[in-house]
Design goal:
4 strands, 4-stranded antiparallel sheet, alpha+beta, 4 helices
Length: 84
């Protein structure tokens, strides 16, 4: 990894991407850069840096669980009946 690349990565430490905060970096397979992150819920997670920057990964999975639970509540029979 070049010196410029290392400086760029050091500047990204502490940056938030969705619910993930970058803590450190490591070299992955095939020259990929892996970001060690902490989620807002407290779960540590290792993620490909490209996925973070493009917005493909936003949390450790807690966001998807919350959205599924919310959809389950709003799509139930009683919620729809009370809404009308």
């Amino acid at each position: 990894m070049s010196q410029a690349c290392k400086i760029y990565l050091e500047n990204l430490v502490g940056t938030k991407f969705g619910r993930l905060t970058v803590v450190a970096f490591e070299q992955g397979a095939n020259s990929q850069i892996i970001a060690a992150c902490n989620c807002e819920c407290g779960t540590p997670r290792k993620v490909n840096l490209a996925h973070l920057k493009k917005g493909h990964t936003k949390s450790c999975g807690c966001l998807a669980r919350e959205v599924r639970a919310l959809n389950k509540i709003t799509n139930c029979y009683f919620f729809k009946k009370a809404k009308n």
